[in-house]
Amino acid sequence: MIIAVYPSFNLQVQPKSSSPASQISSDSHIVTITCIILFKVIKCKAAVAWEPGKPLTIQDVDVAPPKVHEVRIKIVATGVCHTDWEYLYESGKGMKSRPFPLVLGHEAAGIVESVGPEVTKFSPGDKVIPLFLPQCGECERCRSPKTNQCRKNWANMQLGVMADGTSRISYKNQQLYQFLGVSSFSQYTVVPDTSLTKIRCDAPLDKVCLLGCGVSTGYGAAVKTAKVEKDSSCAVFGLGAVGLAAVMGCQVAGAKRIIGVDINPDKFEKARVFGATECINPRDHEKAIQEVLVEKTGGGVDYALECVGSPVIMNAALESTAEAWGTCVIAGWTETETMNIMVEKILMGRTLKGTYFGGWKSVEDVPKLVDDYMNKKLKLDEFITHNLTLDQINVAFDLLKSGKSIRTVISL
């Protein structure tokens, strides 16, 4: 058990008296009150990555109480994102190495269990979505409408620790690092209060958890970063969850032609559900996919969205856009690889942009996306192909890698 002692404060008390006059003339007494709140370490289950390239193991872990400006959450549901798989199985291969042992997971929804000192925006029982991208609301980036990339606690979160340099999750007194400051593959976790957003109480957590990463990223890439226009033509490269969300964004924006591109034709039917007007498998053509697209569209698409994270595909996406006004947005994630671009492709008027979390300001925009889902303006259920439990987490990774799942939701 951990005892948290909050700052003392003074309370002025008037002594009892038989007459109003004597109450007015009496001296006040000062009573000092010290608040003592008992916080317990919570023991729960978590999927632990002990080293790169090895399957996760389910362990009984300890989750410490929240400290100043921290919130402890009971995770109800978490999506299994390709980024989780990449950091486990491709650490150092296009991904910066993270410290191990590590608790992965960053796309989730849950309920506030307790709050630390100086937390004012959350209370136990609140439904929330933890965020790998913070929004402090005070820094220059948060005050600017040009970006969503707040850097509050950023460096430490990338290293798997909280603001004080330590993690809140441990196994037999050994620190377990928190992935992107979240670690949703644990029944309980602790996050900074600037990396958390409160959502409406009637939202189904096993659905809106997807707004913690993949769906928000792809959807925002189309409607917020690319700013797809009505009656335009679009190509979406990669039809996983991020790509399908980008397709949905293109449709919502009113694009007339939406071409899905993927080497797995099993995803084409699902892409059409989200609004794709046609789909192409690059392996069915002798020419490079960008040449195929330029020919099919009479000069190139207006917008291309890369949702794979491959520099080769990024180049193909850029070159599939029309000269003079084509826009290519990179939403696929890679950290250490480089693109080789012919300068002429940019000089001729194309625009190349990147997006992080779809350009959404996380704390303020995610609840709006939840509202859109609840008002049937945004699809979420259609992304979910499998529902599993925490002890099946490695099965979820296998389904993801084999291309058999779009999103698996893990119930904790």
What does this molecule look like?
It contains 13 helices and 22 strands. The protein has 412 residues and is an alpha/beta fold. It has two domains: 39-212 and 379-411, Medium-chain alcohol dehydrogenases, catalytic domain (Quinone Oxidoreductase, Chain A, domain 1); 217-356, NAD(P)-binding Rossmann-like Domain (Rossmann fold, 3-Layer(aba) Sandwich). Strands 7, 9, 10, 13, 14, 21 and 22 form a seven-stranded mixed sheet that branches. β16 (257-261), α8 (268-274) and β17 (278-280) form a beta-alpha-beta unit. α6 runs parallel beside α7 (241-252) and α9 packs parallel to α10. The longest helix has 13 residues, at 214-226. It is globular, with a radius of gyration of 25 Å. 48% of the residues are buried. Residues 1-28 have low confidence and may be disordered. Alcohol dehydrogenase. Catalyzes the NAD-dependent oxidation of primary alcohols to the corresponding aldehydes. Oxidizes secondary alcohols to the corresponding ketones.
Short description:
This is Alcohol dehydrogenase 6. The chain is an alpha/beta fold and 412 residues long.
Looking at the overall shape, the CATH architecture of the largest domain is Alpha-Beta Complex
What percent strand?
A: 25-35%
Distance between the termini: 24 Å
Rounded mean pLDDT is 91
Global outline: globular
CATH top level assignment of the largest domain: Alpha Beta
Rg calc: 25 Å
| Number of helical segments with 4 or more residues | 13
Question: How would a textbook summarize the main sheet?
Answer: 7 strands, mixed
* Percent helix range: 25-40%
The count of β-strands is: 22
Give start-end ranges of low-pLDDT stretches.
1-28
Number of domains: 2
Function: Alcohol dehydrogenase. Catalyzes the NAD-dependent oxidation of primary alcohols to the corresponding aldehydes. Oxidizes secondary alcohols to the corresponding ketones.
Organism: Anabas testudineus
GO cellular component, one term: cytosol
GO biological process, one term: formaldehyde catabolic process
